[in-house]
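Repro:
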Amino acid sequence: MNKAALATITFCAGLFIFGQSNVQAGEFVHGRLLRSNPEGGVSGRSAARIQGPEGGVLRRSRGFAADGQGNAVHGRRGAFQTQNGGQGWRRSSTSKSADGTVQHQSNGAISGANGTANSSGSFTKNPDGTASGSHSTSASKSSGASYQGSTTYNKTDGVQHSGACTNANGETVDCKK
């Protein structure tokens, strides 16, 4: 990753983490920056924060950079909190190399009065066109019931999925569709 890309993603992460502390209830703050970078490409970033009148908050940021040589990166983050204590976040990053390699990763989580869930995934496309990816999810209800699932893809095996559910007593049960 080049220095401009790292600086862009770091800047956006900083805006996301620290946010605009002067946002008042019911207000929206947004900022953008776009510029040429020394490598002959372009980079940009943006960040926003919304403060709801009842205490909910939404923050998001994103950044990208390209070096003019066929390499590019993009990153995105977002988070929310409701006035009732529910919260969640998601982040993702994607890179493309001049040789055609593409990599993507994302993950996120939510929690609230009814339970929690976590999700993560990744995808890779190689220069020869082959691709593979995976995604996993776990969720738990406040009652104690849970779900664990995983999906993978590759050219040889295609899409494969497995999942397991448990009830509030920790016993394995059929997953309802």
